[in-house]
Amino acid sequence: MKRAQKGITLVGFIMVLAVVGVFAYMGMKVVPMYLEFFAVKDAANGVAKESGITEMDASKVEDLFFRRLDVSYADSVKRDNVKVVRKDAGYVMTIEYEVRKPLIANLDVVGRFDLTQEIKRGGGD
């Protein structure tokens, strides 16, 4: 009486490992981009909650934002990517930037991020 084999073959196992490896490699490129975006978001929220922020000049608001970013080691956001505009009794800070990381050969992973933070009297959203 012959018994049927159960389980995965070596070739099947190698293919599964290859697929898992590719997704893990892509995750190693994409996850830091999103962690940096969350640091940018936290910095913008922190600036919005600063006391007396609405009485400050727009350039001072921008400086406070970049000081918070320096602590988070977020390097992708440049001064050209941030706009602080007076609106009513507060400000609207708009942050738009793009991160490009090489993936394999001539393929890149591109993340385009934008965030709008309202800065109102009394702090935050």
From TrEMBL:
Source superkingdom: Bacteria
Pfam families with a match to the protein in the record: DUF4845
UniProt keyword terms in alphabetical order: Membrane, Transmembrane, Transmembrane helix
Tagged with keyword Transmembrane helix: yes
Segments crossing the lipid bilayer: 7-28
Protein name: DUF4845 domain-containing protein
Species of provenance: Vulcaniibacterium thermophilum
